[in-house]
Design brief:
disordered N terminus; FAD/NAD(P)-binding domain; 472 residues; 8-stranded mixed β-sheet; Polyamine Oxidase, Chain A, domain 2; alpha/beta; 7-stranded mixed β-sheet
Length: 472
Protein backbone atom coordinates (compact mmCIF):
# COMPACT_ATOMS: atom_id res chain seq x y z
CA UNK A 1 0.00 0.00 0.00
CA UNK A 2 2.84 2.34 0.89
CA UNK A 3 4.59 1.63 -2.40
CA UNK A 4 1.37 2.26 -4.32
CA UNK A 5 0.88 5.56 -2.47
CA UNK A 6 4.48 6.50 -3.16
CA UNK A 7 4.10 5.71 -6.85
CA UNK A 8 0.89 7.75 -6.98
CA UNK A 9 2.55 10.73 -5.32
CA UNK A 10 5.52 10.44 -7.67
CA UNK A 11 3.20 10.36 -10.68
CA UNK A 12 1.28 13.34 -9.33
CA UNK A 13 4.54 15.22 -8.81
CA UNK A 14 5.58 14.52 -12.41
CA UNK A 15 2.23 15.72 -13.72
CA UNK A 16 2.54 18.86 -11.60
CA UNK A 17 6.06 19.54 -12.94
CA UNK A 18 4.79 19.09 -16.50
CA UNK A 19 1.94 21.48 -15.85
CA UNK A 20 4.32 24.02 -14.35
CA UNK A 21 6.45 23.80 -17.49
CA UNK A 22 3.65 23.79 -20.04
CA UNK A 23 1.44 26.35 -18.33
CA UNK A 24 3.66 29.43 -17.92
CA UNK A 25 2.16 32.76 -16.92
CA UNK A 26 1.44 33.38 -20.59
CA UNK A 27 -1.12 30.62 -20.67
CA UNK A 28 -2.22 29.15 -17.51
CA UNK A 29 -1.80 29.92 -14.01
CA UNK A 30 -2.25 33.68 -13.93
CA UNK A 31 -5.39 33.66 -16.02
CA UNK A 32 -6.97 30.34 -15.08
CA UNK A 33 -6.58 30.65 -11.33
CA UNK A 34 -7.83 34.23 -11.01
CA UNK A 35 -11.49 35.11 -11.14
CA UNK A 36 -12.27 38.52 -12.61
CA UNK A 37 -15.32 40.36 -11.37
CA UNK A 38 -17.59 41.95 -14.01
CA UNK A 39 -16.44 45.45 -12.97
CA UNK A 40 -12.83 44.41 -13.60
CA UNK A 41 -13.44 43.35 -17.21
CA UNK A 42 -12.72 46.00 -19.85
CA UNK A 43 -14.02 45.38 -23.36
CA UNK A 44 -12.65 47.50 -26.23
CA UNK A 45 -12.02 47.40 -29.96
CA UNK A 46 -8.26 47.83 -29.50
CA UNK A 47 -5.89 47.30 -26.58
CA UNK A 48 -2.63 49.24 -26.86
CA UNK A 49 0.38 48.06 -24.87
CA UNK A 50 2.67 51.02 -24.16
CA UNK A 51 1.76 54.67 -23.75
CA UNK A 52 4.87 56.25 -25.21
CA UNK A 53 4.99 58.32 -28.36
CA UNK A 54 3.52 55.73 -30.73
CA UNK A 55 1.11 54.23 -28.21
CA UNK A 56 -0.42 57.60 -27.40
CA UNK A 57 -0.59 58.57 -31.07
CA UNK A 58 -2.28 55.25 -31.91
CA UNK A 59 -4.86 55.72 -29.15
CA UNK A 60 -5.82 59.25 -30.21
CA UNK A 61 -6.02 58.38 -33.88
CA UNK A 62 -8.01 55.18 -33.35
CA UNK A 63 -10.38 57.03 -31.04
CA UNK A 64 -10.90 59.62 -33.79
CA UNK A 65 -11.55 56.78 -36.25
CA UNK A 66 -14.45 55.65 -34.10
CA UNK A 67 -12.73 52.81 -32.24
CA UNK A 68 -12.83 52.24 -28.52
CA UNK A 69 -9.38 51.83 -26.98
CA UNK A 70 -7.54 51.11 -23.76
CA UNK A 71 -3.85 51.89 -23.17
CA UNK A 72 -1.66 49.98 -20.71
CA UNK A 73 1.38 51.99 -19.59
CA UNK A 74 3.92 50.94 -16.95
CA UNK A 75 4.95 54.51 -16.03
CA UNK A 76 2.75 56.95 -14.14
CA UNK A 77 2.67 59.30 -17.16
CA UNK A 78 2.26 59.00 -20.90
CA UNK A 79 5.03 60.06 -23.25
CA UNK A 80 7.82 57.49 -23.13
CA UNK A 81 11.09 59.30 -23.82
CA UNK A 82 9.51 62.72 -23.47
CA UNK A 83 10.98 64.14 -20.26
CA UNK A 84 10.30 67.61 -18.89
CA UNK A 85 11.76 69.08 -15.72
CA UNK A 86 10.17 72.24 -14.33
CA UNK A 87 12.54 74.21 -12.13
CA UNK A 88 10.67 74.85 -8.86
CA UNK A 89 12.55 78.13 -8.38
CA UNK A 90 12.16 79.71 -11.83
CA UNK A 91 9.23 77.60 -13.13
CA UNK A 92 11.12 77.25 -16.42
CA UNK A 93 10.34 73.94 -18.20
CA UNK A 94 13.28 72.02 -19.63
CA UNK A 95 12.73 69.26 -22.18
CA UNK A 96 15.62 66.91 -21.59
CA UNK A 97 14.23 63.93 -23.50
CA UNK A 98 12.46 64.48 -26.82
CA UNK A 99 13.35 68.04 -27.76
CA UNK A 100 11.99 68.78 -31.23
CA UNK A 101 9.80 67.51 -34.04
CA UNK A 102 9.89 67.51 -37.81
CA UNK A 103 8.03 70.24 -39.66
CA UNK A 104 5.50 67.86 -41.19
CA UNK A 105 1.74 68.08 -41.59
CA UNK A 106 1.29 64.90 -39.55
CA UNK A 107 2.98 66.68 -36.63
CA UNK A 108 1.06 69.95 -36.90
CA UNK A 109 -2.24 68.11 -37.43
CA UNK A 110 -1.61 66.04 -34.31
CA UNK A 111 -0.67 69.10 -32.28
CA UNK A 112 -3.80 70.87 -33.48
CA UNK A 113 -5.91 67.86 -32.49
CA UNK A 114 -4.42 67.98 -29.00
CA UNK A 115 -4.72 71.77 -28.76
CA UNK A 116 -0.95 72.12 -28.37
CA UNK A 117 0.45 75.29 -30.01
CA UNK A 118 3.82 74.93 -31.70
CA UNK A 119 6.69 77.13 -32.76
CA UNK A 120 10.04 76.86 -34.54
CA UNK A 121 12.65 75.32 -32.27
CA UNK A 122 15.47 77.71 -31.39
CA UNK A 123 18.83 76.47 -30.18
CA UNK A 124 20.90 79.15 -28.45
CA UNK A 125 24.49 79.49 -29.56
CA UNK A 126 27.11 78.62 -26.96
CA UNK A 127 30.85 78.55 -26.69
CA UNK A 128 32.01 74.98 -27.32
CA UNK A 129 34.93 73.43 -25.52
CA UNK A 130 36.28 70.18 -27.00
CA UNK A 131 37.63 67.91 -24.29
CA UNK A 132 38.99 64.39 -23.93
CA UNK A 133 36.81 63.24 -21.01
CA UNK A 134 39.21 60.38 -20.29
CA UNK A 135 41.90 62.86 -19.25
CA UNK A 136 39.89 66.00 -18.59
CA UNK A 137 42.15 67.93 -20.95
CA UNK A 138 41.25 70.16 -23.88
CA UNK A 139 41.86 68.54 -27.26
CA UNK A 140 44.25 70.97 -28.88
CA UNK A 141 43.79 71.61 -32.56
CA UNK A 142 40.39 69.97 -32.90
CA UNK A 143 37.79 71.84 -34.94
CA UNK A 144 34.61 70.66 -36.63
CA UNK A 145 34.72 70.16 -40.37
CA UNK A 146 34.75 73.38 -42.37
CA UNK A 147 31.60 74.52 -44.09
CA UNK A 148 32.82 73.73 -47.60
CA UNK A 149 33.99 70.21 -46.71
CA UNK A 150 30.79 69.56 -44.78
CA UNK A 151 28.61 70.73 -47.66
CA UNK A 152 30.48 68.58 -50.14
CA UNK A 153 30.18 65.47 -47.95
CA UNK A 154 26.49 66.21 -47.35
CA UNK A 155 25.86 66.37 -51.09
CA UNK A 156 27.47 62.96 -51.52
CA UNK A 157 25.40 61.55 -48.66
CA UNK A 158 22.16 62.94 -50.09
CA UNK A 159 22.97 61.42 -53.49
CA UNK A 160 23.17 58.01 -51.81
CA UNK A 161 19.97 58.51 -49.81
CA UNK A 162 18.16 59.29 -53.06
CA UNK A 163 19.09 55.83 -54.38
CA UNK A 164 16.91 54.21 -51.74
CA UNK A 165 13.61 56.13 -51.58
CA UNK A 166 11.85 53.14 -50.01
CA UNK A 167 13.73 53.75 -46.77
CA UNK A 168 11.49 56.76 -46.08
CA UNK A 169 8.66 54.29 -45.36
CA UNK A 170 10.53 51.92 -43.07
CA UNK A 171 12.73 48.86 -43.47
CA UNK A 172 11.06 47.81 -46.72
CA UNK A 173 14.13 46.38 -48.41
CA UNK A 174 14.52 44.75 -51.82
CA UNK A 175 15.94 41.29 -52.30
CA UNK A 176 18.88 41.23 -52.62
CA UNK A 177 19.64 44.04 -50.19
CA UNK A 178 22.02 46.55 -51.81
CA UNK A 179 25.58 45.83 -50.70
CA UNK A 180 26.27 49.41 -49.59
CA UNK A 181 23.46 49.21 -47.03
CA UNK A 182 25.15 46.23 -45.41
CA UNK A 183 28.60 47.79 -45.15
CA UNK A 184 29.81 48.71 -41.66
CA UNK A 185 29.43 52.46 -41.67
CA UNK A 186 33.16 53.11 -41.14
CA UNK A 187 33.77 51.27 -44.44
CA UNK A 188 31.07 53.27 -46.20
CA UNK A 189 32.66 56.53 -44.97
CA UNK A 190 36.04 55.51 -46.37
CA UNK A 191 34.57 54.23 -49.62
CA UNK A 192 32.78 57.50 -50.42
CA UNK A 193 35.03 60.01 -48.57
CA UNK A 194 32.32 61.59 -46.43
CA UNK A 195 34.66 62.05 -43.46
CA UNK A 196 33.55 65.64 -42.89
CA UNK A 197 30.03 64.45 -42.08
CA UNK A 198 30.79 61.77 -39.49
CA UNK A 199 31.00 63.83 -36.32
CA UNK A 200 27.77 65.71 -37.10
CA UNK A 201 26.01 62.39 -37.69
CA UNK A 202 27.33 61.12 -34.38
CA UNK A 203 26.09 64.25 -32.60
CA UNK A 204 22.56 63.61 -33.86
CA UNK A 205 22.51 59.85 -33.14
CA UNK A 206 24.75 59.94 -30.05
CA UNK A 207 25.79 56.28 -30.36
CA UNK A 208 28.71 54.51 -32.05
CA UNK A 209 27.44 54.68 -35.62
CA UNK A 210 30.75 53.42 -37.08
CA UNK A 211 30.04 49.77 -36.25
CA UNK A 212 26.46 49.79 -37.51
CA UNK A 213 25.41 48.54 -40.94
CA UNK A 214 25.04 51.66 -43.11
CA UNK A 215 21.31 50.91 -43.41
CA UNK A 216 20.73 52.15 -39.86
CA UNK A 217 22.66 55.37 -40.39
CA UNK A 218 20.65 56.03 -43.55
CA UNK A 219 17.40 55.37 -41.72
CA UNK A 220 18.34 57.80 -38.98
CA UNK A 221 20.26 60.53 -40.82
CA UNK A 222 17.58 60.65 -43.50
CA UNK A 223 16.43 63.20 -46.05
CA UNK A 224 13.66 64.54 -43.84
CA UNK A 225 16.02 65.02 -40.90
CA UNK A 226 18.46 66.88 -43.15
CA UNK A 227 15.64 69.09 -44.40
CA UNK A 228 14.75 70.01 -40.83
CA UNK A 229 18.38 70.60 -39.85
CA UNK A 230 18.64 73.08 -42.70
CA UNK A 231 15.23 74.73 -42.32
CA UNK A 232 14.25 74.32 -38.69
CA UNK A 233 12.47 71.86 -36.41
CA UNK A 234 9.27 72.44 -34.46
CA UNK A 235 8.65 72.33 -30.74
CA UNK A 236 5.78 73.15 -28.43
CA UNK A 237 5.17 76.87 -27.91
CA UNK A 238 5.27 76.31 -24.15
CA UNK A 239 8.69 74.62 -24.53
CA UNK A 240 7.15 71.85 -22.46
CA UNK A 241 6.72 68.78 -24.65
CA UNK A 242 4.91 66.97 -21.87
CA UNK A 243 1.92 69.18 -22.77
CA UNK A 244 1.37 66.76 -25.68
CA UNK A 245 0.79 63.86 -23.33
CA UNK A 246 -1.08 65.74 -20.63
CA UNK A 247 -3.57 66.87 -23.26
CA UNK A 248 -3.77 63.38 -24.74
CA UNK A 249 -4.48 61.95 -21.28
CA UNK A 250 -7.25 64.50 -20.78
CA UNK A 251 -8.88 63.19 -23.98
CA UNK A 252 -8.38 59.49 -23.25
CA UNK A 253 -9.13 59.80 -19.53
CA UNK A 254 -10.11 56.44 -18.00
CA UNK A 255 -9.08 54.60 -21.16
CA UNK A 256 -5.48 54.79 -19.90
CA UNK A 257 -4.22 52.42 -17.23
CA UNK A 258 -1.11 54.07 -15.78
CA UNK A 259 1.42 52.35 -13.51
CA UNK A 260 0.15 49.09 -14.96
CA UNK A 261 1.71 46.09 -16.67
CA UNK A 262 0.65 43.01 -18.58
CA UNK A 263 0.79 39.71 -16.67
CA UNK A 264 -0.57 37.43 -19.40
CA UNK A 265 -2.07 37.46 -22.88
CA UNK A 266 -4.20 35.00 -24.81
CA UNK A 267 -4.57 35.52 -28.55
CA UNK A 268 -6.39 32.23 -29.23
CA UNK A 269 -8.03 32.67 -32.64
CA UNK A 270 -11.02 30.56 -31.61
CA UNK A 271 -12.04 33.24 -29.12
CA UNK A 272 -13.97 36.35 -30.05
CA UNK A 273 -11.44 38.53 -28.23
CA UNK A 274 -7.77 38.86 -27.58
CA UNK A 275 -7.49 38.70 -23.80
CA UNK A 276 -4.96 40.59 -21.70
CA UNK A 277 -4.49 40.29 -17.96
CA UNK A 278 -3.19 43.50 -16.40
CA UNK A 279 -1.92 44.39 -12.95
CA UNK A 280 -3.02 47.92 -12.05
CA UNK A 281 -2.84 50.07 -8.90
CA UNK A 282 -6.49 49.20 -8.26
CA UNK A 283 -6.05 45.47 -8.77
CA UNK A 284 -6.08 43.04 -11.66
CA UNK A 285 -8.11 43.77 -14.77
CA UNK A 286 -9.08 41.62 -17.71
CA UNK A 287 -9.03 43.39 -21.07
CA UNK A 288 -11.02 41.87 -23.91
CA UNK A 289 -10.18 43.47 -27.24
CA UNK A 290 -10.76 42.64 -30.86
CA UNK A 291 -7.21 43.68 -31.73
CA UNK A 292 -3.92 44.30 -30.00
CA UNK A 293 -1.32 47.01 -30.74
CA UNK A 294 2.07 46.51 -29.11
CA UNK A 295 4.39 49.54 -28.94
CA UNK A 296 6.82 48.50 -26.21
CA UNK A 297 10.45 47.74 -27.19
CA UNK A 298 10.63 44.19 -28.58
CA UNK A 299 13.09 42.79 -26.05
CA UNK A 300 12.17 39.31 -24.89
CA UNK A 301 12.52 40.48 -21.29
CA UNK A 302 9.62 42.89 -21.91
CA UNK A 303 7.31 40.05 -22.93
CA UNK A 304 7.13 38.05 -19.73
CA UNK A 305 3.61 36.63 -19.63
CA UNK A 306 2.90 37.24 -23.33
CA UNK A 307 1.90 34.28 -25.49
CA UNK A 308 4.55 35.00 -28.11
CA UNK A 309 4.69 32.63 -31.03
CA UNK A 310 7.91 30.80 -31.78
CA UNK A 311 8.36 33.10 -34.78
CA UNK A 312 7.91 36.25 -32.70
CA UNK A 313 10.33 35.01 -30.06
CA UNK A 314 12.91 34.04 -32.68
CA UNK A 315 12.78 37.42 -34.41
CA UNK A 316 12.75 39.56 -31.27
CA UNK A 317 15.62 37.52 -29.84
CA UNK A 318 17.86 38.65 -32.70
CA UNK A 319 17.70 42.32 -31.75
CA UNK A 320 20.50 44.03 -29.90
CA UNK A 321 20.46 47.56 -28.54
CA UNK A 322 22.61 50.23 -26.97
CA UNK A 323 21.93 52.41 -23.95
CA UNK A 324 21.27 56.12 -23.61
CA UNK A 325 20.71 58.32 -20.57
CA UNK A 326 19.73 61.94 -20.15
CA UNK A 327 19.90 64.09 -17.05
CA UNK A 328 19.86 67.60 -15.63
CA UNK A 329 22.40 68.65 -13.02
CA UNK A 330 23.11 71.71 -10.88
CA UNK A 331 25.93 73.00 -8.67
CA UNK A 332 28.35 71.58 -11.23
CA UNK A 333 30.74 74.50 -11.60
CA UNK A 334 30.39 74.64 -15.39
CA UNK A 335 30.31 78.26 -16.60
CA UNK A 336 27.09 79.52 -18.12
CA UNK A 337 26.93 79.57 -21.93
CA UNK A 338 29.62 76.88 -22.18
CA UNK A 339 29.05 73.53 -23.87
CA UNK A 340 31.62 70.85 -23.08
CA UNK A 341 31.84 68.26 -25.84
CA UNK A 342 33.55 64.87 -25.56
CA UNK A 343 36.16 64.29 -28.27
CA UNK A 344 38.45 61.35 -28.91
CA UNK A 345 41.87 62.84 -29.73
CA UNK A 346 43.24 59.68 -31.37
CA UNK A 347 40.09 57.81 -32.37
CA UNK A 348 38.57 57.38 -35.84
CA UNK A 349 36.88 60.65 -36.78
CA UNK A 350 37.46 61.83 -33.19
CA UNK A 351 34.40 60.02 -31.83
CA UNK A 352 34.61 59.52 -28.06
CA UNK A 353 35.13 56.12 -26.51
CA UNK A 354 31.90 54.91 -24.91
CA UNK A 355 30.47 54.56 -22.30
CA UNK A 356 30.93 58.22 -21.49
CA UNK A 357 29.33 61.62 -21.26
CA UNK A 358 28.66 62.90 -24.76
CA UNK A 359 28.14 66.53 -23.89
CA UNK A 360 27.31 69.00 -21.15
CA UNK A 361 25.42 72.07 -22.27
CA UNK A 362 23.28 74.89 -20.86
CA UNK A 363 19.63 74.03 -20.31
CA UNK A 364 18.31 77.54 -20.86
CA UNK A 365 17.68 77.87 -17.12
CA UNK A 366 20.59 79.52 -15.26
CA UNK A 367 22.50 77.12 -13.05
CA UNK A 368 21.22 73.96 -14.71
CA UNK A 369 23.00 71.89 -17.36
CA UNK A 370 21.84 68.99 -19.48
CA UNK A 371 24.09 65.96 -19.64
CA UNK A 372 23.83 63.21 -22.27
CA UNK A 373 25.45 59.83 -21.62
CA UNK A 374 25.77 56.94 -24.06
CA UNK A 375 26.92 53.34 -23.66
CA UNK A 376 27.22 50.35 -26.01
CA UNK A 377 25.66 48.22 -23.26
CA UNK A 378 23.11 48.71 -20.51
CA UNK A 379 24.18 50.10 -17.15
CA UNK A 380 22.33 50.65 -13.90
CA UNK A 381 21.19 54.18 -13.15
CA UNK A 382 23.57 54.29 -10.20
CA UNK A 383 26.48 53.23 -12.41
CA UNK A 384 25.69 55.96 -14.94
CA UNK A 385 25.46 58.62 -12.23
CA UNK A 386 28.77 57.47 -10.75
CA UNK A 387 30.42 57.65 -14.18
CA UNK A 388 29.05 61.15 -14.74
CA UNK A 389 30.36 62.32 -11.36
CA UNK A 390 33.78 60.80 -12.12
CA UNK A 391 33.96 62.58 -15.47
CA UNK A 392 33.02 65.93 -13.93
CA UNK A 393 35.80 65.44 -11.41
CA UNK A 394 38.15 64.57 -14.29
CA UNK A 395 37.28 67.88 -15.98
CA UNK A 396 38.45 69.60 -12.80
CA UNK A 397 41.65 67.63 -12.22
CA UNK A 398 42.55 67.59 -15.92
CA UNK A 399 42.18 71.35 -16.08
CA UNK A 400 39.78 71.66 -19.03
CA UNK A 401 37.16 73.15 -16.68
CA UNK A 402 39.02 73.93 -13.47
CA UNK A 403 35.82 75.21 -11.83
CA UNK A 404 33.95 71.91 -12.36
CA UNK A 405 32.56 70.34 -9.18
CA UNK A 406 30.62 67.23 -8.25
CA UNK A 407 27.18 67.71 -9.81
CA UNK A 408 23.84 67.32 -8.08
CA UNK A 409 21.25 65.42 -10.10
CA UNK A 410 17.83 67.06 -10.29
CA UNK A 411 16.39 64.92 -13.10
CA UNK A 412 17.45 61.64 -14.66
CA UNK A 413 15.97 59.17 -17.11
CA UNK A 414 17.15 56.10 -18.96
CA UNK A 415 16.15 55.79 -22.61
CA UNK A 416 17.34 52.23 -22.63
CA UNK A 417 16.87 50.07 -24.67
CA UNK A 418 17.90 52.44 -27.43
CA UNK A 419 18.53 51.96 -31.17
CA UNK A 420 17.52 48.38 -31.99
CA UNK A 421 19.53 46.64 -34.68
CA UNK A 422 20.42 43.24 -36.10
CA UNK A 423 23.66 42.14 -37.83
CA UNK A 424 24.20 42.67 -41.54
CA UNK A 425 23.84 38.94 -42.22
CA UNK A 426 20.36 38.94 -40.70
CA UNK A 427 19.36 41.96 -42.79
CA UNK A 428 20.69 40.21 -45.89
CA UNK A 429 18.69 37.08 -45.03
CA UNK A 430 15.40 39.01 -44.97
CA UNK A 431 15.02 39.78 -41.27
CA UNK A 432 12.85 42.85 -41.80
CA UNK A 433 10.60 41.13 -44.33
CA UNK A 434 9.98 38.43 -41.73
CA UNK A 435 9.51 41.02 -39.00
CA UNK A 436 6.97 43.04 -40.96
CA UNK A 437 5.11 39.83 -41.84
CA UNK A 438 4.08 39.69 -38.16
CA UNK A 439 1.73 42.64 -38.70
CA UNK A 440 -1.82 41.42 -38.25
CA UNK A 441 -0.90 37.89 -37.19
CA UNK A 442 -2.87 36.73 -34.15
CA UNK A 443 -4.82 40.01 -34.40
CA UNK A 444 -1.68 41.86 -33.31
CA UNK A 445 0.09 44.88 -34.80
CA UNK A 446 3.46 46.29 -33.82
CA UNK A 447 4.89 49.80 -33.96
CA UNK A 448 7.63 51.73 -32.19
CA UNK A 449 11.29 52.59 -32.66
CA UNK A 450 12.48 49.09 -33.61
CA UNK A 451 10.03 49.03 -36.50
CA UNK A 452 11.11 52.23 -38.22
CA UNK A 453 13.36 55.00 -36.89
CA UNK A 454 13.95 56.31 -33.37
CA UNK A 455 12.14 59.60 -34.03
CA UNK A 456 8.64 60.52 -32.81
CA UNK A 457 7.63 62.44 -35.93
CA UNK A 458 8.59 59.66 -38.33
CA UNK A 459 7.17 56.98 -36.05
CA UNK A 460 3.81 58.72 -36.21
CA UNK A 461 4.06 58.49 -40.00
CA UNK A 462 4.88 54.79 -39.81
CA UNK A 463 2.05 54.16 -37.36
CA UNK A 464 -0.38 55.96 -39.66
CA UNK A 465 0.25 53.33 -42.34
CA UNK A 466 -0.95 50.60 -39.96
CA UNK A 467 -4.12 52.29 -38.74
CA UNK A 468 -6.45 51.40 -41.63
CA UNK A 469 -5.87 47.68 -41.05
CA UNK A 470 -6.15 48.03 -37.28
CA UNK A 471 -9.39 50.01 -37.60
CA UNK A 472 -10.92 47.73 -40.23
Amino acid sequence: MASLLGATLKAFRLVWICLAITLPSAYGFEKRSYEYKPEDIITRDVCIIGGGSTGTYSAIRLRDMGKSVVVVEKKDVLGGHTNTYVDPATHIPIDYGVIDFHNLSIVTDYFTRLNVPWTTAMFPSTQELYVNFNTGKVVDGFAPAGQAAFAQALDVWISHLEKYPYLSNGFFLPDPVPADLLLPFHDFVKKYSIDALVYSMFEYRQINILVQPTLYVMMNFNLDLIQNILNGFLTTASHDNSDIYRNALAILEKDVLLSSHVIWTDRDSSSEYVKVGVETPSGRKLIQAKKLVITIPPKLSNFKGFDLSQNESSLFGQFSNVAYYTTIVKHDGIPENLSVVNIGPNTPWNLPTLPAILSIYPSGDPGLHEVKFSSPYELSDDAVKAAIVAEFNQLHTGGAVASATTPEFVAFDSHTPFEFSVPADAIKDGFYKKLYALQGQQRTWYTGAAWDVHDSSLLWQFTETLLPAIAA
